[in-house]
Amino acid sequence: MSYFINLTNVEAAAGRTLYNISYNLVMPFEGNFQGFNWVQWFDKNWGLVFYMVGAYMAVIFGLQAWMENRRAFELRKQLFVWNVILAVFSLYGGLRSVHELHYVYSNFGLYSTYCLNGLR
Predict the structure, then answer these.
(1) What sign results for the dihedral spanned by CA atoms 34, 39, 45, 46?
(2) pLDDT tens figures, 65-115
(3) What is the spatial distance between Cα 30 and Cα 12, in angstroms, rounded to a whole number?
(4) Among candidate residues 104, 119, 115, 120, the one with its CA nearest the CA of residue 8
(5) What transmembrane ranges does the database entry give (predicted)?
(6) Residues near 21 by Cβ (< 8 Å), separated by ≥ 6?
(7) Residue ranges of domains in the chain
(8) pTM for the whole structure
(9) DSSP assignment of 58-108, as one string?
(10) CB under 8 Å, gap of 24 or more: what pairs does 17-22 form?
C-alpha cells in the first residue's frame, strides 16, 4: 500500500470508518460506491494524468488553431444549458457538503470539522 491509501483510508461505504463515525447516507449511490477500489486504481495509475493533460492541451490548442479563420459558432443556448447543469451540480455539492459539515459539527464539535481528515 502506498502512503496515500494509508492517509485517506476510504472504506466508509463498506462500513469501515477511520474515526468510527456512522451516519445515514444521503443518496442511494453513496452506499454502493467502492471508494477504496478507486483510490487503489488512481494510486497505481497516477502517471496517466500527464497523458490526459497532454491530450487535453493538444485538443484545446488544436481546435483553437483550426477555428482561427472560421466563423464563430452560435452557442448561446448550449452554453446556457451547460451553465444550468453546472449550477445544479454545484448546488447539490454544496448542500451535500453542508449536510456533512452540520453532522460532524453537531456530533463532534468544531475541532472535528477542520482537524480530522479522511472519511469518517
Answers:
(1) positive
(2) 999 999 999 999 999 999 999 999 999 999 888 888 888 888 888 888 887
(3) 9
(4) 119
(5) 48-67, 79-95
(6) 104, 107, 108, 120
(7) 3-115
(8) 0.58
(9) HHHHHHHHHTTTSPPP--HHHHHHHHHHHHHHHHHHHHHHHHHHHHHHHHH
(10) 17/119, 17/120, 18/118, 18/119, 18/120, 19/112, 19/116, 19/118, 19/120, 21/104, 21/107, 21/108, 21/120
